[in-house]
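Researcher: Quick one. two chains, 960 residues in total.
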Amino acid sequence: MSAQVPSQAPLLYERVAHLVETQIATGTLRANDRIPSVRSMSRAAKVSVSTVVQAYVHLENIGLIEARPQSGFYVRPPDPKVVPEPRAKPLRSRRPASIATEMLDICREALTRSDIVPLNGAFTSPALYPNQRLNNLVREVLRDRPHHAGELIMPPGDPELRRQIAKRMGLAGAPTDPEHVVITSGAMDAITLSLRVVCQPGDTVLVESPTYFGLLQAIEYLGLKVVEVPNRPGVGIDADAVRQVARTTRLAAAVLMPNFNNPAGTLTTDDAKRDIVATLTGMEVPIIEDDLYGDLHYGSVRPTSMRAFDESGLVISCGSVSKTIALGYRIGWAVAPQFHTEIARAKFFASVACPTLQQLVLARYYASGGYDRYLRRIRTMLSTNSQHFIDAVARHFPAGTRITRPTGGIVIWIELPPSVDGAELFRTALASRIGIAPGIVFSAKADYRNYIRMSCGLPWSAAIDRAIEKLGKLAKDRSG
Amino acid sequence: MSAQVPSQAPLLYERVAHLVETQIATGTLRANDRIPSVRSMSRAAKVSVSTVVQAYVHLENIGLIEARPQSGFYVRPPDPKVVPEPRAKPLRSRRPASIATEMLDICREALTRSDIVPLNGAFTSPALYPNQRLNNLVREVLRDRPHHAGELIMPPGDPELRRQIAKRMGLAGAPTDPEHVVITSGAMDAITLSLRVVCQPGDTVLVESPTYFGLLQAIEYLGLKVVEVPNRPGVGIDADAVRQVARTTRLAAAVLMPNFNNPAGTLTTDDAKRDIVATLTGMEVPIIEDDLYGDLHYGSVRPTSMRAFDESGLVISCGSVSKTIALGYRIGWAVAPQFHTEIARAKFFASVACPTLQQLVLARYYASGGYDRYLRRIRTMLSTNSQHFIDAVARHFPAGTRITRPTGGIVIWIELPPSVDGAELFRTALASRIGIAPGIVFSAKADYRNYIRMSCGLPWSAAIDRAIEKLGKLAKDRSG
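Model:
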């Protein structure tokens, strides 16, 4: 006899019955699902056929399953008059969650809700991506490479896609050898892998404040500490502060978002970029640039990558297609003259490779042209949009509210009157089915208590105006 | 003036020219590629239109680009009589590589080669996967969810796919609540994320020996130490050794491959599984089970998951579609009653999510049936195959060679006479265009010097017989 079935029930047939009951109770088997045949259950549970028959008759008797002639046993649909039993509560995690973790969990959960006005995520509407073009290219790849599902593209990734990305780096002032490009599962994967290559647990990493909460969390997961320097409106990352910190703190790396910082939307000036690169690379501190939003400039000029000012090869520039073409593809990259071999190695040992299909499709998309034309359209939309959002906030929010004027990207950053708690506004707004992001998650020190971040990626509409009006009312209720 | 262009060249136009030259030298711009228009280059490099014209005329004069009427400037195809200049060597990494790293790099590189008989990877031929079925389902999803590229499925992942995976866990004797399933980018991602959740850097993790080299490397990347227990032919993981180690060493987790261990192919008995689960969970040590090969049993019964013997919820079972359906999809899972919330959170902060398309396609594939029929076919093939491979090794290899008799999986494990160095055989074989894996990479202590691993996943053929004959000759040359 085997112990493949739980060991509490006293009789063999009861054990088999319990196995099926558990699958029904957890929803693994649902109403009208066919349950395993007597023969296959007998094999799987290592019991005789007659034991399985006995179990199934028992389950039939208690009304959980029903036999259908010539077809087998099925899960019986519930009697509508019977109130279903409550489901088992998942076991609690053994790690106590900090308040920040709880807030981040609520933020993450809010991203899964389809019943809210989603001003919480930093992305555009799915309908705005070049879906038809991409889907046609998928069909092309299915035709030309019918075995793609069985093929692995090992890190550093598809050579043609890497060449296309290298080519685009030229437009950011940083001509790139395609051999220095490593394809990753989005920009966060690129940043995490880069950090794993250049840091050891316990090391300290320089970040700006405010910065993307996911970045702070990724740094914490790697066992690293952070030190923050301010990102200032109109200037961006404070180069003097970087110099001061670098003098007094032993830094293992910096992770910076000079082009349209998330959440503040700030563009760091070229002078500040040059200064920061000189300071840090002069001390052999690698810089990991998160250039996720660089292509979404509202003006005519693509902002410069920090790599344009680097002669050491210590600047790693990370990007992705998530904010521009395909959020659901999960493809990004790290451009890393000094570290590409190690990043490719780390990628292999962390998750082997990136999906074959998306790499082939994106290589074709970039190579076939049209990306710049598409970008112009989406940038115009975002630029117009952000103005609408800013105007609406100005109209509806309480006196004392301050708003960024981003020149690129998908978010606006709002400072509320000091009496308004952004986290509380976030919770109340969610109850009114409006998603925003609370300011406190954008700093390791939980600063920005009276700030919120709002996406401006959805096409402007009366419904959004009403949502902002409602947010403004909720904020006014809490101010002064 | 801007410093978006390198700051060494003295004149403005030379800087622009240098930018284009670099792109041509690195292959970013190739023969007949159109180079940026004068206007867009002027914007990107923040120089005047006339400076760009001067730069382009210079590049034309030195023969790098050519003007084509009414069309713009193009990279000039090289004169075939001119020998091209050598390409710049990529900068060397700053971290000294250990011998093990070097050997692993050669192993990884060998996986990218298409000019060898690939007995090195542990997977089947791309043509054997259910490609047509999957491609048809991709077409279905393109039709039904045309905006999938713009849609993000947040961790824990697509609910229907999670339900299907939970359902299959029942066949491994471990009924599962779909809420406990987290979708990941393959099994290695699931294992890495699980380790991040249950361990802190510096902790010690129990593994078996031999075990998959990628696992050892992933553990090292996380700053963890390993302690090894033997995996013995016919028995599998040594439960007594586990008990002894657990008594004397403070373990943070165990990562075990009880079902067709890679590379040894051993199936751990149910008694040993029950014993190990009792020992470790009794001491609150989480077990991460790598059940990548469980579905590829040659016999009629699907081996048991260690979760079948667990009542604590501390056993995490990881799997993927890589070895069965779609290596190139990069989709796997962790089934973790106690830790699913934290693993989903870690997934979000490491790489946000898994690709939308593959999740939707796989959910449909499992739901529509046929997976078991497909599995029967591939299992029969692998079972017959492994016999052919074993026979051929017996025929061609030197006296004193020992071979495993796996009852599932895709690899056979070969002990060579003590005088034969597996790593040397690996290098010589590669020079003869035959890929194998050297034994020393399958243990943290570089044991198994005279072992090799050979894939038996390719359909049997005369060419493979010849390759094994050649390997045998190379081994004979080194033995005695």
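The domain at 99-121+373-478 of chain A is CATH 3.90.1150.10 (Aspartate Aminotransferase, domain 1).
Researcher: Thanks, that's what I needed.
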